[in-house]
Amino acid sequence: MSPGVGYTGFGNKTFTYTGSSVTPFSKIKQIYGDELERLRTDEKTGNLSFEKLTLQQKTEIKKKIIKELTRTRIQQLVLLIVSGFVLSGVLYFFLLWFFLVKQDL
């Protein structure tokens, strides 16, 4: 029985299991042409210059990273506390409304 014969189901297409695979990036040369040869990454990284950092510069970078991490942790903690208050308030009003409505019935 061939895959094209029979009921494939609602929404199923036969080309999903009868089609052939396509080589990735096979049309990139056709699309970009010779410009692709100009955009080689190894040529770009060769022109970059990396300077050695002194001990003072390294400590300044570490201090900035630690300061940034503490600021984000404080923001996350504040967000957690505020969301906890909001959720507890919603739960409180839901329970209050539920018991008031239940008592009226």
Q: What's the gist of this structure?
A:
This protein is 66% helix and 0% strand. With 105 residues, it is mainly alpha-helical.
What is the domain tally? 1
Q: For the report, how would you describe the main beta sheet?
A: none
Helix percent reads 55-70%
Rg (C-alpha, Å): 31 Å
Would you give an account of this structure?
By secondary structure, this protein is mainly α. The protein has one domain. Helix content is 66%, strand content 0%. The chain contains five helices and no strands. It has helices at residues 15-18, 28-32, 35-38, 41-46, 55-104. The chain is flat and about 75 Å long. The model has no long low-confidence stretch (mean pLDDT 78).
Main attributes?
105 residues; mainly alpha
List the SSEs and their pairings.
Blueprint: H1 15-18, H2 28-32, H3 35-38, H4 41-46, H5 55-104
